[in-house]
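Quick question, first post here. What does this chain look like in 3D?
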Amino acid sequence: MKKIPVFLTILFFFNSIALAVEPASDSALTEKIKERLEQTASQDLSAIKEEIAQTAKSPRAKAYIGSIKTIDGQIITLSYKNQEFAVDASKAYEIMKTSGQKKLALKDLKNNDFLIVMGLAYPGKNELEARKINLIPAPEVNDTRQLIIGKIEEIDGNKIKVNGKTLTISSKTRLEIKGLKSPNQENLELKDTLFAIVSLDKNGTIIETKNIFVIPGENNTAGQEPTNAQTSTSSADASESATIKADD
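> Answer (accepted):
Ran it through. Tokens below.
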């Protein structure tokens, strides 16, 4: 009869050891899982930070409009509404006189010429890196114009929507699409980047679309060329749209 208590004592002893070991094993496993999650989270955070950093370094499409104040080498200073904008023309692939579509050289430009300059704005760089420069007629007295920049959101015949604004292409609209010699509205595609000069009435309503320049986007093979430029624009670009008045 003594053997039974001894056997029970031994059994209880080993069960106690097993119960003591299991929590320790669970604790170690939990710690390993925690370490792995922390490591994964750290790697994901690093990847996100790197992506944000790269995005911050990317240029974005932008345009300036105004009259030439000075030309110093390849740097053009534009003046508009008591503001000045610096433009680097060294990488401009085209300088054009809009009326008559006459190609120009930088030396043909002079003070007080009225320009629309389209190019890339790089973070940390003061000058807009010009890609295309158009010499256009200066606004007439009481002629109020606005510069609109954005991606094409909708196309309905001769009407296109950019940043929630509807532009109408008429026989008076000068349309240019990079890479095409004789473009028309049928060459436009969604997500193309658009720069437009429009005339406004006294209430700020668009009454005429005067000039449109388009850089083909990912959906448009017309005149497309490889680029690492970030041409995406947002509603912030619309808020930066320039309003032009000859008497300002």
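The domain at 59-138 is CATH 2.40.50.140 (OB fold (Dihydrolipoamide Acetyltransferase, E2P)).
The chain has two helices and 14 strands.
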